[in-house]
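Handoff note, outgoing to incoming analyst
You'll be picking up this chain. Sequence as last confirmed:
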Amino acid sequence: MPRRTPAAVVFDLGNVLIDWDPYPAIAAGVGPDEARRFLAAEDFDFMAWNLVQDAGGRWADAEDAVRRSHPHWAEHALAYRAHFTESLLGEVPGTADVVRDLHAAGVPLLGLTNWSDELYPHAPERFEVLALLDDVVVSGTEKVAKPDARVFEIVAERSGIPLDRLAFVDDKQANVDAAAALGMDAILFTDARSLRDELHARGLSV
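Most recent structure output, in case you need it:
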């Protein structure tokens, strides 16, 4: 049975539209071996630390905290922000074309990204496809990050489209599950070809 056609599509950005990897940024500051050691460290969780800034924390505060709590990792942690643009590797193959096709078909398009508001401006500067999105909700600006229900509600409020009329695309299962629990038509992103199939099954021209 065909799925209900959504009124708009909401895209996660990192590793859905934009290929993001913290390793090259950290390696640019401390070298590849030290970057690998840092990201695999048992006494420091980089992704959890980064998420604090995605939820509105300030980078200066985060870096000061590392200097106090993990001084042996301070140089590594500081390298990430200092060389942040190195973490943006390019467009995820094919997804930008999906966005362009949906835009050409007149489908409203939104972004919902876990991203520090201090670092997000690098994205629209480098990736022209983001200009095709009608709005982007940046977690760092809103001070709440996925999978918190509130950030999904902000998308609905700002777009004027109910959650149950929004399709949501994300590469993390926890975020997809959170969106589905709120009534969104949630799609786990694996690759652009599969995404096209999912959107086509919902009656969208892609």
